[in-house]
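User: Show me sequence and structure for the first protein, then do the same for the second.

Assistant: Starting with the first protein.
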Amino acid sequence: MSKTLRHLTVLLALLFSLGAAAIVLLSPGEQMTDAARRFIGLLNEDQKKVAVMGYDDDRRVKWHFIPMNDRKGLEVKLMDENQKRAAFSLLRSALSQVGYDKARTIMDLDALLKVMQKGPSPVRDPERYYVTIFGEPAATGMWGLSFEGHHLSLNFAVENNKVTSHSPAFFGGNPGKVTMDVGAGPVQGTWALEKEEILGFELISMLDDAQRKIAITDAKAPKEIRDAGTAQPPAAGPIGLPASKLNSDQMHKLWAIIHVYAHNMPGPIAETRLKEISEAGFDKVYFAWAGAEKPGVGHYYRIEGPTFLIEYVNTQPDAAGNVANHPHAVWRDMRGDFAIKR
């Protein structure tokens, strides 16, 4: 290799590293705005009419995770390969690597369901997910993002390149833990919401009898999270055992559960979520449990504080008929979802 070529190679490597560093230094809001602009730039005019809506459009606050024949936004299936890559780059910019991997696993589960569920069951397709941009992604002003489909609903608001809302954030799974290989979708042993499930059982098992009497609010788990699809979270207030009644080990376990949900988002957003919980007072966080205290039977937990709400329910059977292997999990902002104050 000539000296000139070596110098050019070193220079290109340096420029690449500086460019990578610059990307890393961008805030989550800046990364989302850039990714959204790139995505829109690849769409034709007909696609833009479907994918881009006004920020004040009523559909911005309409969300759900159930199978639906029609949803707002542009379906991934109807994108070309460059558009698909841009759509998933946008999703990646909005989530942490853990959150992104979780979302893609949940989407891939529909390929498994397509094989397992025959007859008149809803259409299953790992590309039956929809991207919607609300407003114009720019360094100034407000815009929103929805990425949604079966068992996935992720909603964001960005103002002046700052993410001002990242809820509702819903993740689910059918099956919760893949128990067999069917030749499509995730392989046996894949478990999208593993930590959400296991840590919940670990915490309830750590409580003594007096604590359990307060924490366990019902012998039977509810069928579903509360107020699914509503523009704002339920306002009934916390129930169960306050964090102030936990010992050190139990408190760390509760924090561990909260961390799992918080860190579905990029690091700066996750840290903001946790900081807000601490500033509002961790003693004001409550843990409630309902249903069975062992896997394979319907169970539910709820963690709530002044700034957030977590609900996890696992009562439905999976596609193979295994009971309580079909979880639903959500993070909501008790001060108001969608950047709309209550």
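Switching to the second protein now.
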Amino acid sequence: MRYKNKTKSIRVVLRLIVGLTTSLFVLSLTNALNAELVEECGKELDEYGYFELTGNLNCSETDKPAIKITGNWVWLNLNGYTLSGNEDNVCIQIEGEGARVYNGTVESCKEGIEIKPESGDNRITLIKSCNNKRRGFRIRGDKNQLSDCTATNNGRKGFSIEGEEDERANDNLLVKCLAKNNGHQGFIIEIGDGNDIYWSKAYANCRDGIEIDGGSYNQVLYNHVEDNGNKEVCDSFADDPTNPLDDYYYKPWYYAGIDIKAGSEMNPSEYNEIKYNHACGNLGCNGSDESICEARERNYWDENVNDEGNFASLNEWENNTVCPECTPGP
């Protein structure tokens, strides 16, 4: 079902207000609640309550999620501590509705925080997710909000809004977040409509800084995107072109600062708004042939415009800028 984007300005204002005030609301309200302490790995939070860590928690010896939230309206305060795991488990997995998770670090898991498709209306605030094998944040449900979160040095994606054809990830909000030095994209909307990325930063990620792979009526506004797709600053690019690990092989002709893919017939990228962003130093390629590929500035890209078919884009690009010494993509 496609969205009709008739009240865009109202949606922008309301969602920004909610996103920016989430952390203050969460921290003030939970001060009045009695805390249940989380001191063991594999803990399942299956009913409403306020929970908090009492110290750093190393869960590298279990194959279960370090913490699993299955109840509704669970509040989890990491209390400034670090929750860690291994390459086979998830640091925090959310299946319930309305969870509040905030104030700490998740690291060294397969996924830092994973929101399952059946889960929605969650708020993730002031969380750092780093050094995870795949994603810092994997968002598969609807109407989730992440504010003031950081994803760094994850093996694949920093922030992934990731639906499926029959179960799209819609109406999620990412505001004032940072994606830096991730092995693939900094921010990506894979299949989803009505998602918003505002006032965020994507620096030195190995592929696109911000990418819409397939979806409509998404907004990318007021973001700063710099030095993505640059082999010189990306450790995960392989030097050997015969490397069989295709996911980690450098293909600079694919990348841009903000990259809107054409999508598919079932899942087109159209009616997205890309406005008031600033991009500089993002590298792409002048040509699709690997043998003649020469890296160049490729700050903005819309496959609907730049494909050989030269289709007219249905996406809205407005008031995006580059550094004085940079030139945008074609």
